[in-house]
Specification:
Strand content: 5-15%
Distance between the termini: 100 Å
Mean pLDDT: 93
Structural class: alpha+beta
Low-confidence stretches: none
Length: 372
């Protein structure tokens, strides 16, 4: 039976205040109807842009109807949690090909557990303080169109890079949802942010692999985040040089976005682990599986797994400095016991050898010649 309680404004004010005590930067409310976005999702899937993320199509019906995840859902509470670390050194690491670049969201604790625990605390607080309710909480953990729902709830607008943007906070934040059977008032249309990308093309221009094929259109098959985190196979040869030293995710479209000058410092829970801010690629290659597990305990990097992480490191090394010492250490690592990693390491050696030979030839050609 649907919840017949109707909220009073002071209850909602209290909810906002309590959400802030839990570290949430913003809260909004919307209805569970996502039908207006269904056509976009269907077209994206039909174009094959989801790559090997088969669950996107498998759960497309659920994405199109949040009430299937919680029968009786009448409202969606959308919540923002900021993560940008104060000293993230993004540009410095990207400029040093001997280092491995890890997306800034993944430098600290895994947001899934942190966010979900706080969402549940907020939902339980609602039950005990405002009204008992049936609910489920999600943060990138179920087939929920969270960007669209967040947009409708007034947390921002979907930018040309397909991330959610806010004029007050840029895009360095996580999203979470509480589906509830409470009939909460939706965020006022006056409070919903209109799209403010204008004529800016910065994210499309900077994308290393040109994965943003048009405004609001992302081909995941070319996206470095997909290739280094979701994709389990051999990274296409044509894309490997474009990946550079990015070994887990990519932030380029966020780093150039003008709105991110308004991004504030994120929640302390996501403070970076010093070992992950600017790691030497060759050091990462030499990690044993036990060292990988120890260094990534409670980290989003666990999602890639040890061997896939080494595959990514191998690509980074192939795009790095062609020194004799680095090539020797790569050769010593072979064979690793994993065919996929070995294939990428041999590619890296071929790349470095070709580059070293080209540099020697250039040096020879430029060397001064003595008269006979």
């Amino acid at each position: 039976m649907a919840n017949s309680w109707h909220p009073e404004s002071h209850f909602l004010d209290a909810l906002h205040r309590h959400a802030a005590t839990l570290g949430f930067a913003k809260v909004g409310f919307t209805h569970p109807d996502v039908s207006a976005h269904q056509g976009y999702l269907d077209a994206w899937l039909a174009a094959g842009f989801s790559g090997e993320m088969d669950w996107m199509a498998t759960h497309a019906t659920l994405r199109g109807d949040p009430t299937a995840l919680l029968p009786g859902t009448r409202s969606v509470i959308s919540v923002r949690l900021d993560y940008l670390p104060e000293d993230h050194q993004a540009q410095q690491v990207l400029a040093d090909p001997s280092k491995g670049y890890i997306s800034r969201y993944a430098l600290g604790r895994d947001y899934h557990k942190v966010f979900r625990k706080r969402l549940k605390a907020l939902a339980d607080w609602i039950s005990t303080t405002i009204a008992p309710h049936g609910y489920r909480v999600f943060t990138d953990s179920a087939p929920v169109l969270e960007k669209y729902l967040a947009e409708q709830a007034g947390l921002g607008w979907i930018g040309k890079h397909t991330l959610l943007l806010s004029k007050d906070a840029g895009s360095y934040f996580f999203l979470g949802e509480i589906l509830t059977d409470l009939p909460l008032p939706t965020t006022s249309r006056d409070a919903v942010e209109s799209a403010r990308c204008g004529s800016c093309q910065a994210c499309l221009t900077v994308c290393p692999t040109q994965a943003i094929i048009a405004p609001y259109q992302l081909d995941a098959r070319r996206c470095i985040s997909y290739l280094t985190i979701e994709y389990k196979g051999s990274i296409p040869l044509a894309l490997r040089p474009l990946i550079g030293n990015r070994i887990f995710g990519c932030d380029d479209c966020q780093l150039v976005c003008p709105w991110n000058k308004y991004a504030g410092i994120g929640d302390p829970a996501f403070s970076p682990r010093q070992a992950l801010i600017a790691p030497e690629l060759i050091t990462l290659l030499e990690w044993t599986e036990a060292e990988f597990l120890a260094q990534t305990e409670g980290s989003p990097l666990r999602r890639a797994g040890y061997w896939q992480f080494l595959r990514n490191v191998a690509v980074g090394l192939g795009n790095g400095p062609a020194t004799a010492a680095i090539m020797a250490r790569i050769a010593q690592r072979l064979p690793t016991g994993n065919q996929l990693v070995d294939e990428h390491l041999r590619w890296a050696l071929d790349q470095l050898t070709a580059r070293a030979n080209a540099e020697r030839s250039l040096d020879s050609a430029q060397a001064p010649r003595s008269n006979p």
